[in-house]
Amino acid sequence: MSPEEKLVCGLEEMGLDLDPATQSRLLSYVELIQKWNQVYNLTAVRDPQKMVTQHLLDSLAVLPHIDGCRIIDVGTGPGLPGIPLALANPSLEVTLLDSNHKKTSFLRQACLELGLKNTTVVCERVEAWRPEEKYDVVISRAFSDLAEFVGLALHLCSNTGLMLAMKGVYPYEELTRLPATVVLQGVEPLKVPSLDAERHLVLLRPIKMEAMG
Ligand SMILES: C[S@@+](CC[C@H](N)C(=O)[O-])C[C@H]1O[C@@H](n2cnc3c(N)ncnc32)[C@H](O)[C@@H]1O
Predict the structure, then answer these.
(1) Ligand 1 pocket by C-beta < 6 Å: which residues?
(2) DSSP secondary structure letter of residue 52
(3) Nearest C-alpha to atom 11 of ligand 1 is from which residue?
(4) Any binding-site annotation on 80?
(5) The CATH number of 3-212 is which of 3.40.50.150, 3.50.50.60, 3.40.50.300, 3.10.20.340?
(6) Cα 1 to averaged position of ligand 1 atoms, centre (Å)
(7) pTM for this structure?
(8) Could you give the ipTM of this predicted complex?
(9) Maximum separation of any 2 CA atoms in the chain, in Å
(10) Nearest CA residue ID for atom 6, ligand 1
(11) Tens digit of pLDDT for each residue in 53-62?
């Protein structure tokens, strides 16, 4: 099956109706990762078909859980999940943050070549980044354990926002070490077409400072 067919079948299975132009931009993004991977080592996944499953469909599986329009992807690497989300939903304003200069050089070029108007690339350590406005959604994939994610990135989340952590197997042990600054809203199993592995999305709600006394 070609990467194109894999994407079309996957989107159908997920019930995501993306127009042909968006599908084509998602595939162009995979091609860009492939091209830059030869020099910048952006991802260990090298096969385009596997990139469709493990990067595109995996990222898009969280789309139904994105509530609000200002979103920051912390430790985005080559733009995952931020770029597929920005491509799939142009009404999102997506900040792509990573501390690695090579990754952010790639991100700037990728956003330019893909004609993305709803992304901002930031090269900073997350704990040092102080934006003017907080975010509705702070998301990460393969970034850190839950406690560290909250410790490093909670200051970016608005009082009414959500922190979303993309995980593999149900993170029982990590959940026992959640800091008291957040409350667990839920852990949603995610179905990624053609992926023979478990995926979960952890939803964390910040505890308002005034509620803490
Ligand atoms: C394993 S990669 C995951 C990349 C991407 N989210 C994915 O799912 O493929 C983790 C990324 O986090 C970045 N990172 C690590 N610590 C960071 C920090 N304190 N602030 C910002 N980025 C950080 C690294 O540069 C790296 O690109």
Answers:
(1) 75-77, 80, 97-100, 103, 125-127, 141-143, 152
(2) I
(3) 75
(4) yes
(5) 3.40.50.150
(6) 31
(7) 0.96
(8) 0.99
(9) 57
(10) 76
(11) 999 999 999 9
